[in-house]
Write a structure and sequence with these properties.
The protein is of the alpha/beta class. The chain contains eight helices and seven strands.
Length: about 250
C-alpha cells in the first residue's frame, strides 16, 4: 500500500499561486508520493490569514489522516509590515505570538510545523541589497529556536542570492520585465520605487474559465523564473531542516 506524505504551504503572495514560489515547489520539487497543497494567499499577514478563516482551512487539512507524516510550512512577514490595520502586527509582540500559536495548533493537529523566513525584497541602493525584512526574520528564527521548530531560512538564502545576482540580473525574477528606466536604474545599482499594480483586466464573458491574475513588475513577487529559482532554494533547505523529507524532495 502507498505510504504517502503531505506538505501544506501557508503564507502570503510570495508563496501563493501565480505570484510566489509555492506553485513551482509543488509542481517540480516533490515526488508523486507527496500531496502538496498551496494555501498561500496574497496580501495576508499572520493576523488576517487567521481572521478570514484561511488558517482554519489549512489546519483542517493538517488533521486529515492517512499520511505517513504531514508538514506545514509557515511563511509570513511581508504584510505584517503593512500600514493597513487588518494586516499590521507589532513586530516584537503580536507577530511572534501569532507564530507561536500557529506552531502549537499544528502540533495539536498531529502535524509538524516548519517556519520559513520571508523571501527578501530585491531592492538595491548603491549596489547593496536593502533587506527590509531582516529584523522580522530574526523574530522567526527566535521562535523556531525557542520552540524547537525546523527552520527554512529563506530570507538569508534569497538575500545572499539576490546580492550575488546584483540588481540588474535580479529583475529577471519578477513577474514581468522592467521598463527601460527601471532596468537602467538597476544596472546603475539603485532600484527605482516599485510601480503601483495595474488595474485588473475587464471580466471575461462566456462559459469557460474566467479567473484572471494581474501580473506586474516589482521587487517582491515572482514570475516563472523567480518561482523556480526560489522553490529550489526552499527544497534544498527543507531537505536539510527535515531529514525525513529528503527522499521525497527533488532538486
Amino acid at each position: 500500500p502507498l505510504d504517502p506524505y503531505k506538505i501544506i504551504l501557508v503564507g502570503d503572495s510570495t508563496m501563493a499561486p501565480h505570484s510566489g514560489w509555492g506553485g513551482a515547489f509543488c509542481a517540480h520539487h516533490v515526488k508523486s508520493s507527496v500531496a502538496c497543497l498551496n494555501t498561500g494567499r496574497g496580501g495576508r499577514s499572520t493576523r488576517s490569514y487567521r481572521q478570514e478563516g484561511s488558517w482554519d482551512i489549512a489546519l483542517a487539512e493538517a488533521k486529515v489522516p492517512g499520511y505517513r507524516g504531514t508538514w506545514v510550512l509557515i511563511q509570513f512577514a511581508h504584510n505584517d509590515q503593512s500600514s493597513k490595520s487588518e494586516r499590521w502586527t507589532d513586530e516584537a509582540t503580536e507577530f511572534p505570538a501569532n507564530l507561536r500559536r500557529f506552531v502549537e495548533e499544528v502540533r495539536a493537529a498531529g502535524a509538524t510545523p516548519v517556519l520559513v523566513t520571508p523571501l527578501t525584497r530585491r531592492e538595491f541602493r548603491d549596489g547593496k541589497l536593502k533587506n527590509t525584512l531582516a529584523s522580522w526574520s530574526d523574530q522567526i528564527r527566535s521562535v523556531a529556536k525557542a520552540m524547537d521548530v525546523p527552520l527554512v531560512d529563506l530570507n538569508a538564502l534569497s538575500a545572499a542570492q539576490a546580492q550575488e545576482m546584483g540588481a540588474e540580473t535580479a529583475t529577471k525574477l519578477a513577474q514581468v520585465p522592467p521598463t527601460p528606466e527601471e532596468l537602467a536604474a538597476a544596472k546603475a545599482g539603485t532600484t527605482l520605487p516599485a510601480r503601483p499594480a495595474p488595474p485588473p483586466p475587464p471580466p471575461i464573458a462566456g462559459e469557460g474559465a474566467r479567473g484572471q491574475v494581474t501580473r506586474k513588475f516589482d521587487y517582491t513577487h515572482l514570475g516563472n523564473v523567480g518561482a523556480e529559482v526560489t522553490a529550489k532554494l526552499v527544497a534544498e533547505a527543507l531537505a536539510r531542516a527535515v531529514p525525513w523529507l529528503r527522499s521525497q524532495l527533488v532538486r
